TrEMBL record:
This is Zinc transport system ATP-binding protein. GO terms for molecular function: aspartic-type endopeptidase activity; ATP binding; ATP hydrolysis activity. Residues 17-251 form the ABC transporter domain. Residues 246-260 have a biased composition (Basic and acidic residues). SMART domains: AAA (SM00382). It comes from Knoellia remsis. Keywords: ATP-binding, Nucleotide-binding, Transport. Coiled coil: none annotated. PROSITE patterns: ABC_TRANSPORTER_1, ABC_TRANSPORTER_2, ASP_PROTEASE. GO terms for biological process: proteolysis.
Length: 278
């Protein structure tokens, strides 16, 4: 389904993500119903669709945070059940901002993104510190590194979380509504940050209601409706015939989002386990 020509290369790397008639949900409730999709390295995919269409459930499925209820899910060519290389996927959860109860500096929060990469008994090394500084620079927060995260605006906190995900050096960055609740000026800053990441070759899967902010960086658009994919193509094709999906999809956050975000913000593993997510 990818339009990338990397497809044709005889020894091409496997797709970052491959869904073959995959279903995800909660308990026995199927939310994402037999979706087939693949994302290749270099692609920046925007995942669109009305509230409740299953976007978050799909990305959570890739992270083991919603249940895999059918079909096949491959991550970097490995079936998800056997996939152990979690740091290859960075995740920025859906949320407004960091919990006010997190008492830590910007640098400390970003540094937690490195924890999954080394055994608990090994202290942080120089490479950890440099990677953290580089991640802070990538999101334009190097000059705020020593500040308390609680002192930052919502948009800046979002960038802290992106930096935390980047600190693990992921091959794929998954973001759930990175611009939700962020004012227009900060949305532009975020879009610039993402454009910078694209320039350095980061592949992204971005759930969003605000496609405008990402119009210049997105290479592909996937639209969901009621658990199915009903558009998958390039932004030009989307613009000519599929704008209607965005209309009338007013956004709301459930009370659970805040709790989940608070937990995700403080856990040391960049991919919270299912238990932590409840
Ligand atoms: N933890 C959960 N347990 C049970 N059902 C859930 C859970 N999370 C989401 N759902 C249900 O799954 C359906 C799809 O929700 P999902 O969050 O995937 O949609 P979405 O497309 O991301 O919507 P939004 O744009 O509002 O974030 C909804 O009906 C929702 O109630």
């Amino acid at each position: 389904m990818s339009m990338s020509s990397a497809h044709d290369t005889a020894h091409a790397a496997p797709p970052l993500v491959e869904l073959r008639s995959a279903s995800f949900g909660y308990g026995d409730r199927v939310v994402v119903d037999r979706v087939s999709l693949e994302q290749r390295a270099g692609e920046v995919v925007a995942l669109l669709g009305p509230n409740g269409s299953g976007k978050s459930t799909l990305v959570k499925g890739l992270l083991g945070l919603s249940e895999h209820l059918g079909g096949e899910v491959l991550l970097f060519g490995t079936p998800i059940e056997r996939f152990r290389d979690k740091p290859r996927i960075g995740y920025v959860p859906q949320r407004h901002s960091l919990s006010q109860t997190v008492r830590a500096t910007v640098r400390e929060v970003v540094a937690t993104g490195r924890l999954a990469l080394r055994p608990w008994w090994r202290p942080a090394a120089a490479v950890d510190a440099t990677t953290v500084e580089r991640a802070l620079e990538a999101v334009g927060l190097a000059d705020r590194a020593g500040e308390d995260v609680a002192a930052l605006s919502g948009g800046q906190q979002r960038r802290v979380l992106i930096a935390r995900a980047l600190a693990a050096g992921p091959d794929l960055l998954i973001m759930d509504e990175p611009t939700a609740g962020v004012d227009a000026a900060n949305q532009r800053v975020l879009a610039d940050v993402l454009a910078g990441l694209v320039d350095t070759g980061t592949s992204m899967l971005v759930v969003t209601h605000e496609l405008d902010a990402f119009r210049d960086v997105v290479t592909r658009i996937v639209c969901m409706d009621r658990g199915h994919v009903d558009f998958d193509g390039d932004p030009a094709a989307y613009a000519t015939g599929h704008r209607s999906h965005e209309r009338g999809s007013g956004h709301h956050h459930s009370p659970d989002d805040t709790r989940e975000a608070g937990l995700a913000a403080v856990v040391s593993d960049p991919l919270p386990t299912r238990e932590e997510n409840r």
